[in-house]
Amino acid sequence: MGDKTNITETDFVDRLIQEWLDTVPTLDLSGLPVIARIVRMSHYISQFVDANFARYNLTIGEFEVLAALARNPDRQLSPKDLQEKILISSGGLSNRINRLENKKYIVRMPDPSDRRGVIVKITPEGRKLTLETVETHVAIEKALIQGLGAEDQDQLADLLKKLILSQKSQLNEKTKSA
Question: Which of 25, 26, 68, 102 could form a disulfide with 85 if both were Cys (CB 3.0 to 4.6 A apart)?
């Protein structure tokens, strides 16, 4: 229903599996079809997304910071808050903040509740750019999944969510036992 691609067609992953089975017939490849296709799709997504952000002189990382700030216009976000929202190291975030501040898209201000801390605010120019960029970004996301019907999109989203939540749970367990 709504599928626009023939799934009986052989893809890179099918060939990869066959090559491994030809080489090591006893190899358990049960995880490979899903993970290899996620990795392959991630590559395609990155190609389209990076090209789109380049049109705005942004990287995906810079957009993530701007988007977090634009989505939370009434909140004062510290670098630690941003770090939690976009899953990045403090060093990587500092570099992004510096670049965005140099471009005049954000400003750092003293944190009124912590004399040593700062809060990060999006500038009007940064907000305008972010709202323009997000329009093209979501259009690309929509185009990337157009090969699936609405029901398949919902099912894939649910399955990926289930997979992500299971991994998050496993990581939390490993962190507690370490």
Answer: 68
